[in-house]
Amino acid sequence: MQQGPGTLFHMLHKSDLSMPQLVTLLFVRRGGVASISSISQHLNLSLGATSHLVDRLVVAGFVERAEDQNDRRQK
Question: Where are the alpha helices (DSSP H) in the chain?
């Protein structure tokens, strides 16, 4: 079943997600695991803005954030 743009905006409003947050969730869902760098490039946002966006998704319970055991710079 295909949903129209009105349904998408209703879901965004109901979940209190921004469009970049929704795009991030879809990006992570498609790829499984994603770094802040890859999300940042996908969204065309700075690393800082992307990190903050992901932090808000973590607090809301949409994603989990973990450090890369092989690279301390990656979180």
Answer: 5-15, 19-31, 36-43, 47-59
67, part of any domain: no
Is the residue at 53 inside a domain?
A: yes
Global pTM reads 0.74
Q: Are 24 and 47 in contact (CB under 8 A)?
A: no
pLDDT tens-place string over residues 5-31:
566 666 666 778 888 998 999 899 888
Tokens of 55: 């932090």
CB of 26 closer than 8 Å to CB of 11: no
Q: Which two tokens stand for residue 4?
A: 């129209």
Number of structural domains, the chain?
A: 1
